[in-house]
Amino acid sequence: xxxxxxxxxxxxxxxxxxxxxxxxxxxxxxxxxxxxxxxxxxxxxxxxxxxxxxxxxxxxxxxxxxxxxxxxxxxxxxxxxxxxxxxxxxxxxxxxxxxxxxxxxxxxxxxxxxxxxxxxxxxxxxxxxxxxxxxxxxxxxxxxxxxxxxxxxxxxxxxxx
Length: 161
What we know:
The protein has helices spanning 22-30, 40-47, 92-106, 121-129; strands at 12-16, 52-59, 62-72, 75-83, 111-117, 133-142, 147-155. It is an alpha+beta fold. The chain has a single domain (12-158), classed as Aminopeptidase, CATH 3.40.630. Strand 3 and strand 4 form a beta hairpin. It is globular.
């Protein structure tokens, strides 16, 4: 059922992604080659770390995507975001980013950063629609395959509501 997608426009739910949900996140990452590929263990450890927040989206009884962010002082970072391919362009990713940005804003974050594969034109366009701007490049940032990352930033006043 999860791989097939569901009813476009069906209601969805956003909730906490906990360390014990790491296997779900790994499953989604296995379907998302453009995302950062974390192992289940790495995801579990990240979600157990100070200042890290995870959210998941669910539709039609299926966990459709997740986001993991970290806050340090007044800065936030989106560490990973993935949505099952069958559920992309249904609002899951945007809802996850908006909710994380709202959480960050509520705790005093003034800037949020992220990295995205330079070949991920869809991801770059998505983040630009969410209010992020390109601010730099990190050469050879990604592995499997080796690829540069586009560094993006959004300031609190630019967060899309």
